[in-house]
């Protein structure tokens, strides 16, 4: 596929009327190479491959570039920094329209299919099939890898890793209260009613009262039982645990109006609205704390957050614990991650593929799994020996290997986001989510119309010409 993205189509899909000045601002800065050039291979003879965005952590990139250059002496990996004042997604589209695209790019999962649809990404199926490792049937965790990679029969990128939401808690708090914490084993997941009872017990005002007590004071809280963020990744986990989907994989239509999905979303809203075990938005704003601080100060007993949060939460005072989310009908969680891709008009696609392959190697992924930032997408990192090497303390609490080997691969679901999804969500879904989670409306009263509107928006976007 070799579609050309017109300026009009770029402006439509980016949602930003970028003028000449903005396009100029998105030109890549003069590349600053890191890692030493070998004397045998002068810099002038190297093929430069630009990567837009950060594939991993900035402090680790120089070492990664050095190793890549050692393994590929004919290629120089150059980072194109994100332009100030614009998103990376707008920057990529602007560079393509300006005729100066990078060779490779980080692409977020919510726009991956839209970018493939627009012809911004090079199909890499042939590269994967020709690679003896990547094409092996047991290389990737399946079926999730194919679920995210393949669009209309082609792969346009490789997922960087997996991440998944789960519970975090302060170990010392549960020890002080004499309460047994939830488990990392999905077979021992709390049922929803048991979870709600525990969240009520863990919620206490400054006078020691719990929700349901006659003198409970919701305006003067010592601790809330749970904080379950109301953005799409934690909410998708809830929908999955109630036996439903966010988007139907076959039709690529939103199905948040199913009874199970609406009940799951209302259950999360009711943690705050009906049961008083979760802080309201204004309370969180007044505290000015993120999830890790809420746990460390013991203002929240159970925090739902992505697996990535382990990389900065593991050292909290009192010790960090983790657990699977409660099961409404079944254990369930969300699985997501950004993609590494070759841009359609890459001048040297073969060399660009070598960089993508390096960024998808077990060595590269293991670095970030070890730090607690990522979960594996490759079975090589899921063996007993490998787990014993990287999934270790202090970054990983005892039992975390069950999140890695049982919970995520067996109960995790990738949320496919079709062409036009971002516009549909921003226009139709997010406004009613605000109503639901602020207690202004119930899910069953507002979601059916919102889902119908969102599906119509996606259908219109998918039918638009791309040139």
Automatic annotation (TrEMBL):
Classification via InterPro entries: Bact_solute-bd_prot1, SBP, TAT_signal
Pfam families for the chain: SBP_bac_1
Gene3D superfamilies the record matches: Periplasmic binding protein-like II (3.40.190.10)
UniProt keyword annotation of Lyase present: no
Keywords: Signal
Cross-referenced PROSITE patterns: PROKAR_LIPOPROTEIN (PS51257), TAT (PS51318)
Segment forming the signal sequence: 1-32
PANTHER family in the cross-refs: ARABINOSE-BINDING PROTEIN-RELATED, DIACETYLCHITOBIOSE BINDING PROTEIN DASA
Name of the protein in its database record: Extracellular solute-binding protein
The species this protein was found in: Caldilineaceae bacterium SB0664_bin_27
Lineage: Bacteria, Bacillati, Chloroflexota, Caldilineae, Caldilineales
């Amino acid at each position: 596929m070799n579609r050309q993205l017109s300026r009009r189509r770029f402006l439509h899909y980016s949602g930003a009327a970028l003028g000449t000045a903005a396009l100029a601002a998105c030109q890549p800065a003069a590349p600053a190479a890191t890692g030493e050039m070998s004397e045998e291979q002068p810099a002038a003879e190297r093929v430069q491959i630009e990567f837009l965005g950060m594939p991993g952590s900035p402090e680790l990139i120089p070492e990664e570039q050095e190793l890549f250059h050692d393994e590929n002496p004919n290629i120089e990996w150059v980072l194109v920094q994100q332009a100030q004042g614009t998103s990376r997604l707008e920057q990529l589209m602007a560079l393509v329209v300006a005729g100066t695209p990078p060779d490779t790019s980080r692409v977020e999962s919510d726009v991956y299919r839209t970018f493939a649809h627009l012809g911004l990404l090079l199909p890499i199926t042939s590269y994967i099939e020709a690679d003896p490792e990547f094409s092996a049937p047991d290389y990737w965790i399946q079926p999730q890898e194919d679920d995210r990679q393949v669009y209309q029969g082609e792969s346009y990128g490789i997922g960087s890793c997996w991440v998944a939401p789960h519970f975090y808690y302060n170990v010392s708090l549960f020890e002080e209260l004499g309460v047994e914490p939830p488990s990392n084993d999905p077979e021992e997941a709390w049922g929803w009613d048991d979870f709600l009872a525990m969240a009520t017990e863990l919620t206490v005002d400054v006078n020691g009262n719990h929700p349901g007590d006659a003198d409970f004071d919701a305006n003067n809280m010592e601790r809330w039982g749970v904080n379950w963020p109301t953005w799409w990744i934690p909410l998708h986990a809830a929908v999955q645990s109630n036996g439903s989907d966010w988007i139907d994989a076959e039709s690529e239509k939103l199905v948040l109006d199913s009874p199970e999905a609406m009940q799951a979303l209302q259950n999360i809203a009711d943690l705050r609205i009906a049961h008083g075990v979760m802080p309201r938005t204004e309370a969180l704003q007044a505290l000015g704390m993120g999830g890790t601080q809420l746990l460390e100060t013991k203002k929240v007993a159970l925090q739902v957050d992505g697996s990535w949060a382990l990389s900065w939460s593991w050292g909290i005072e009192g010790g960090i614990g983790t657990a699977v989310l409660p099961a409404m009908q079944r254990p369930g969680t969300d699985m997501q991650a950004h993609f590494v891709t070759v841009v359609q008009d890459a001048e040297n696609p073969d060399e660009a593929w070598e960089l993508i392959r390096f960024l998808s190697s077990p060595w590269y992924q293991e670095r970030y799994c070890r730090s607690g930032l990522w979960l594996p997408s490759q079975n090589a990192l899921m063996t007993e020996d490998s787990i014993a090497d990287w999934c270790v303390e202090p970054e990983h609490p005892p039992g975390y290997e069950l999140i890695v080997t049982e919970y995520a691969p067996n109960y995790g679901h990738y949320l496919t986001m079709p062409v036009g999804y971002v516009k549909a969500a921003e226009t139709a879904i997010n406004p009613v989510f605000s109503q639901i989670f602020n207690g202004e409306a119930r899910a069953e009263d507002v979601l059916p119309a919102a889902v119908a509107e969102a599906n119509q928006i996606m259908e219109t976007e998918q039918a638009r010409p791309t040139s």
